[in-house]
Amino acid sequence: QVQLVESGGGLVQAGAALRLSCTNSGRTFSPYAAAWFRQAPGKEREFVAAVSWSGGNTYVEDSLKGRFTISRDSAKNTVYLQMDNLKPEDTARYYCGARLTTTQAIGVMPPSLIQFWGQGTQVTVSS
Length: 127
Description:
Blueprint: E1 4-7, E2 10-13, E3 18-24, E4 32-39, E5 46-51, E6 58-60, E7 68-73, E8 78-83, E9 92-100, E10 116-117, E11 121-126
Parallel strand pairs: 2-11
Antiparallel strand pairs: 1-3, 3-8, 4-5, 4-9, 5-6, 7-8, 9-10, 9-11
């Protein structure tokens, strides 16, 4: 079972950086791809970035490339989202998700493909 716990959110000013963490506290040895999503009030949950089970392949939503970076440390069972030069429009609740898979290919992951979700962590960017 995959049990995800996010951390690292907070209130920051525009231009600041944050690093979100997503740790799997479950007892699973099955490979899984992981992804970050975000959801602002009144909006649908949207894809942000994904990383393959090995960490060798990553994909970031086009509009966020250059500011957001995803990575994973398998030894720590943790996936990270580094967010630089934050903007007020990045304000949202950020969720970590996982899908059991052995494929290395990675791209946009619709929320419907996610099998396990964390509770989310709030990111608020003030102008």
